[in-house]
Design brief:
The chain has about 220 residues and is of the alpha/beta class. Helices cover about 45% and strands about 10% of the residues. It folds into two domains: about 110 residues, Rhodanese-like domain (Oxidized Rhodanese, domain 1), CATH 3.40.250; about 80 residues, Orthogonal Bundle (434 Repressor (Amino-terminal Domain)), CATH 1.10.260.40.
């Protein structure tokens, strides 16, 4: 096996993961953060947030595959690479994350509130902003300050601060700079931004668009 193959995290789609779960052949690990897990998660998934993920302490389960998942598949792939570096083999991540799982019609467990227990429910967003992922899963665990990051990737400190605060989006150039520094996929950061923006757009104008626009048919 080549070094490149060893460094590649295997991928499986949600249908395959569902089959493995039904046959009790895998340990499904959710690497999202605790608040995300508490809102909604796949039944039986073990929570090990990426922000505190310790590959050296990861349990070894002979005879069972380990499948990692997150919201859209990027964080789980990053966690898989951490395990590969520690010598784990056969690491798999679920493509599309819990979003793809739900899109396929598979069930999740959600947090329930009794009537009158809390204020009217606010929208629940499952795709975190890139700045949140950057802060909680990279800067804090690695002890890197925004100032240090700005110097290392060649941008103004204010640019980093704005991304962390959610005031500025991650474009393709910044995604490339962050990817180079943190050794992630080139589209990792910009993909987080797109998923974040799409989720909020669906909530704010999705219903309006569905009412105003009819899908084109072959006869038109």
């Amino acid at each position: 096996m080549t070094e490149q193959a060893k460094a590649t995290v295997q991928a499986a789609d949600v249908a395959q993961v569902r089959q493995w779960l039904d046959r009790n052949e895998i340990l499904l690990v959710d690497v999202r953060e605790t608040p995300e897990y508490e809102v909604e998660h796949i039944a039986g998934a073990l929570l090990l947030p990426l922000s505190s993920f310790d590959a050296e302490m990861f349990p070894s389960l002979p005879g069972r595959k380990v499948v990692l998942h997150c919201a859209v598949g990027k964080r789980s792939e990053a966690a898989g690479k951490m395990l590969l570096k520690e010598g784990f083999s056969g690491v798999i991540h679920m493509t599309g994350g819990i979003q793809a799982w739900k899109a396929a019609g598979y069930a999740t467990e959600i947090q329930l509130h009794l009537p009158g227990e809390s204020d009217p429910a606010q929208p629940v967003f499952l795709c975190p902003a890139p700045g949140q992922v950057l802060q909680e899963e990279y800067l804090k665990p690695l002890g890197i300050s925004p100032q240090q990051l700005a110097r290392c990737i060649g941008v103004l400190e204010g640019r980093v601060s704005d991304v962390l605060a959610g005031k500025s989006p991650v474009g393709v150039e910044l995604s490339l700079r962050l990817a180079r520094y943190f050794s992630t996929a080139a589209d990792f950061w910009v993909h987080l931004q797109v998923e974040h923006d799409l989720e909020r757009a669906r909530h704010s104008v999705g219903e309006q668009i569905r009412q105003e626009i009819q899908p084109r048919t072959a006869s038109l």
